[in-house]
Amino acid sequence: LATGPGQNNSIFYEIRTYDIKPSKMKEFVEMANKYLHLRTAHSELVGFWSAELGAMNKVVHIWKYDNFAHRTAVRRALANDRDWQGKFLSPALALIEKQHNEVAYLVPWCQLGKPPKEGGVYEWVTFQMKPGGPALWGEAFQAAINAHVNTGYTKLIGVFHTEYGLLNTVHVMWWNESPDHRAVGRHSAHEDARVVAAVRDSVRFLESQQNMLLIPLQCSPLK
């Protein structure tokens, strides 16, 4: 989980979260679906989702960069892209109440995954861990995640830890066929002794936890 020299490579992910004006959510989603190809012409989009449960009028999108120089070059190109600026960015800014971004790395023991099929839902779980970093809580956290993976009821998409933003934060993205499928799986996991033991060990290092149920937009590569 360590950053710096412990990273396997320089690839990182920018996680952007926008709060949209309640009356403008439909308009924002329609604009994103129509014009986001202008943005993805510059760099790779991992996924784009709207919150269904756990938050309202919120979107989350994740962008992949080779390194920080790559991001700088992309941002410069976007500033000079008249189509992007005029057709999407300028109109969209009037619909957004708040923007937040983080830079995160995939943990070394997790590869970015894909769902087995389209049409499911995504769960975005944010864990705020105790100060001290992965040297303190990394092994216990990994064991808790793997215990859930081993139940088989859910698909792990990615585990991201922050480099810029609130530190000691880990975001975990899961995929399920439906909210009801997730609910049944979670109930079974809570009765699984292996999961209970792993979670009990991990929560010693946990300060807070929050989750959202996300629905992919039409323009999202992960659907």
UniProtKB/TrEMBL annotation:
Highest taxon of source: Eukaryota
GO biological process: mitophagy
Residues of the NIPSNAP domain: 13-111, 122-221
GO CC field: mitochondrion
Pfam families noted in UniProt: NIPSNAP
InterPro entries given in the database record: Dimeric_a/b-barrel, NIPSNAP, NipSnap_domain
PANTHER family (alphabetical): NIPSNAP-RELATED (PTHR21017), PROTEIN NIPSNAP HOMOLOG 3B (PTHR21017:SF19)
Family statement: Belongs to the NipSnap family.
Name of the protein this chain belongs to: NPS3A protein
Source organism (scientific name): Nyctibius grandis (Great potoo)
Gene symbol of the encoding locus: Nipsnap3a
